[in-house]
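Task: encode each sequence below as structure tokens.

Item 1
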Amino acid sequence: MAKGMILAAGQGTRVRPLTKDWPKPMVPILGKPVMAYLIEHLVRYGITDIMVNVAYHHKKIEEYFGDGRRWGANIGYSYEGICDHGDILPRPKGSAGGMKAIQDFSGFFDETTLVICGDAIVDLDIGAALFEHKSKGALASVVTLEVPNDQVQNYGIVVADDDGKIESFQEKPKPAEARSNLASTGIYIFEPQVLDLVPSGVEFDIGSQLFPLMAEKGFPFYAQSRFFNWIDIGRVTDYWSVLQRVLRGEVAEMDMPGKEIMPGVWVGPNVSINWDSSKIVGPVYIGSSVRIEPGCSVIGPAWIGHGSHLRQGAKVIRSVLFEYTRIGEGMEFSEMIVSPRYCVDRAGDTTYVGDDRCKLRWGDARG
């Protein structure tokens, strides 16, 4: 049907501290990496031969996904970096440069290829997208979403004619200057000939270099305007929003784990919860081996990672607790992402454990 390419070599600096310990595609959604949902979605549409370019924390991606057989896929990796005096240093080649390196090495991209960023949640009808691409005889297609005019400055904007043929691009234009409201989602469909336009051995970007070149030369290059869920985790605040939407059941094919023991409340095995004196209002997922002491409140949408511990009277409101997070007695965490070492509020401001300026108390439940 088609091959797949997952772009996973980025550093994810705008999502720190979440990417301090993980590469961006490994950031968890309900305890499962973002990229796992993408692979499941690709396989669902028959895309099983998948290449992934990696750089930062590359071992964590490779060790988790392996050869892909768990997902019914055949996954390979292309590492982008160097060994300098015994140190392994990431050196990303750019989104197009990374694909060109794979093509030069093996000729892997010998048929239509769906290219997707490894840090977004999508429920795109891939079959329909591929059909439109082929029916138009496109050399490349960009999947777009219409966004409100007052939000165009947050996106790369695609300008196309009435037939969808791409004329130009605008990078985060001001609303008054925007010539379109079609935002590029970072989902592309390529024919093999596209990579002939990419120079070998240099850093080269799809959006800022390859696509303007294709538009300038007038190649059969089209935008597809589709309606689907596309949740890009570009910033920490996006991550909080993603989890809120997932917990509310707004994203297709993302089922809650665990067992639903009351409406909107799912739990994993081996939990210790004082149900009589605790207030739990869904949608909430409580992972395995979580302990919730008397007098606690968990108000959803909320996710309590496995091994976490809420001490007596603690309140967790519309928040995310990563695995093994302990919330201090009587503490209230509202609209936050909390790990054993740091917490991030909805605005993206980070506080670390031990900061005397912070009145909140939390830590590692394993301590």
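Item 2
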Amino acid sequence: MDFKLTEEHIMIRDAARDFARNELLPGVIERDEKQEFPSEQIKKMGELGFLGMMASPEFGGGGMDTISYILAMEEISKIDASASVVMSVNNSLVCWGIDTYGSQEQKKKYLSKLTTGEKLGAFCLSEPEAGSDATSQRTTAIDKGDHYLLNGTKNWITNGNSADYYIVIAQTDREKKHKGINAFIVEKGVEGFEIGPKEQKMGIRGSDTHSLNFNDVKVPKENRIGEDGFGFKFAMKTLSGGRIGIAAQALGIASGAYELALDYSKQRKAFGTEICNHQAIAFKLADMYTSIEASRHLVMKAAWEKDQGANYDLSGAMAKVYASKTAMDVTTEAVQVHGGNGYVKEYHVERLMRDAKITQIYEGTSEIQKIVISRGILRD
């Protein structure tokens, strides 16, 4: 077992850390309060190559491994989870999905613009009655010969208003159930495509989350990803990789909160000494650090398995369920370490606690991850 990072890995991690501290930290509290999408920062992330890290260099991607990606995700997430979820969706779900399963024409037309941040992507699977149960798609795509006619509603879509290209999962043949589902690339602005109001969220308030409505939207046949009926498999394989990205986001949120709590404990004094010298606080820090390191190893293992071409469904699910729990536990304790200061915005930890919760919900709830894990171990 080699736990040593390569020089390239360290360089990528440090570049992401510097960007987060220099570009994302200024104004992060204000963006959270105003629910302001970090447009300028996301544009710079694209210019630096953070939005298409694993995609093929032929189409403007970085051609990097998954470990490089999660290292960058962790550093960005320490500072601004609203920015890192944009990075996660664009990398894990949209770019990777098109790069892995899209046609050459789709890659030339869409991927080359997504990898550089010139355009942003969104992944549209969840619906009012089809969140965790992804097989129950109500959105339909009726085959009309040279095009599909798309009708339905998608909920809780990250980059809902900021995206330019949307990967939409829809049912073409209900009788075939999950084998009758397809995935399509839909461009913003086409007739019949409407973007609903922005959701008022507890956390990741800087990201724009919207419902999307499709009313007789014409989708060209060439915009279908893969063969007819491939959509459900496409969604599941894409989400398996996406879960590693969200696990890295949860790890970053936890790490960021821990670092703030550690620094604060060395400065804040009570009963004549720094509070880190009191066992009650020291033990909190010990538990936080241990959970973070355990999460890091699970996330790294999942990323390594993906890079090795192994099946990473189980390791990705374990990484996400554990890292997201760690994020909730550590951020809550970080607020506690800060005492009253932890409850006010200027110390950042209350925002990290609010941001942490979503990692237990999106791209497969913790309950869904446990289903994946239990099926995996029982099958073996």
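Check on item 2: The first strand starts at residue 121 and ends at 124. The CA atoms of residues 200 and 209 lie 8 Å apart.
End of task.
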